[in-house]
Specification:
This protein is α+β, with helices and mostly antiparallel strands and about 240 residues long. It has helices spanning about 1-10, 20, 35-40, 60-65, 70-80, 135-140, 175-185; strands spanning about 25, 50-55, 85-90, 100-105, 110, 120-125, 130-135, 145-150, 160, 185-190, 195-200, 205, 215-225. The chain has a single domain (about 1-105, about 145-220), classed as Jelly Rolls. About 20% of the residues lie in helices and about 25% in strands. The strands form 3 sheets. Strands 1-11-8-13-3-2 form a 6-stranded antiparallel β-sheet. The chain has a 4-stranded antiparallel β-sheet with strand order 4-12-9-10, with helices on one face. The chain has a 3-stranded antiparallel β-sheet with strand order 5-7-6, with no helix packed on it. Helix 1 (about 1-10) crosses helix 7 (about 175-185). The longest helix is centred in the first third of the chain and has 10 residues, at about 1-10. The radius of gyration is 17 Å and the shape is globular.
Length: about 240
């Protein structure tokens, strides 16, 4: 399967990728300029010494992220109308904060409080919010959206994904390089107002920008299922 996906990567343009076949899909001009201006006015200012800011309780954001909203509807196209946002992060890459991130899977979720439940391991606190690694089956039922506020050409550090890697389960660190080689790599180029949808556990990475400028991205995780054993999603 991964060899087939690598062939698709080499032969298809990014706009031909589909969530069903590849685990990633681009929605061109998902937000109009007016909607994008509204979203920018709602989002908080990211401190210049921060690469990312986890968001919660931002007034005016909920309508965008609802299953019927301009952003949330893209998640609902895969997960159905019962989906909801469970974590949001605002990222920006600038000349002052121009970082690179190696290939990895996102494996943590944000919850309201720490409760001991089988299969939920490796607890941590990020920006005052409780995080935990859930069973992989839960991650495999989630999707992530990246809403592009600024253009992301090849020179501005687009997200890199390895199509199909989300179907391979929890990938050991020593196997990541080989999986990326077998799956191939897609650079998620974007214009302002575009939205990339991908399977949350897909392998992804990001290089430092060649010509750093603003690269503001609102990244939102969506899920459908409730958590077991009294655990609750922290939410957005």
């Amino acid at each position: 399967m991964v060899e087939r996906l690598a062939y698709r990567c080499a032969t298809l343009g990014i706009e031909q990728l589909t969530f069903l076949a590849d685990g990633a899909q681009l929605f061109r001009q998902a937000l109009t300029l007016d909607q994008l201006h509204q979203l920018k006015a709602i989002l908080p200012h990211l401190p210049p010494d921060h690469a990312g800011l986890r968001l919660r309780g931002i007034e005016g954001l909920a309508p965008f992220l609802a299953a019927s909203g301009h952003v949330g509807s893209r998640a609902a196209s895969v997960l159905g109308e019962a989906c909801r946002p469970v974590r949001a992060i605002l990222f920006d890459k600038t000349q002052a904060m121009n970082w690179a991130l190696g290939w990895h899977q996102d494996r943590t979720i944000a919850v309201k409080e720490r409760i001991s439940v089988d299969g939920f391991e490796t607890w941590s606190v990020k920006n005052g919010m409780q995080h935990v690694e859930p069973p992989f089956t839960l991650l495999s039922g989630m999707v992530t959206l990246r809403v592009h506020i600024d253009p992301v050409p090849a020179s501005n550090a687009p997200l890199l994904v390895a199509p199909g890697s989300h179907e391979l389960g929890r990938i050991a660190e020593e196997d990541v390089k080989d999986v990326v080689r077998r799956c191939g790599t897609v650079a998620c180029l974007a214009d302002r107002g575009d939205i990339w949808l991908y399977a949350t556990p897909i392998l992804h990475a990001s290089d430092a920008a060649d010509a750093p400028m603003h690269r503001r991205v609102l990244q939102v995780d969506f899920a459908v299922s409730e958590l077991p054993g009294g655990l609750e999603w922290l939410g957005v």
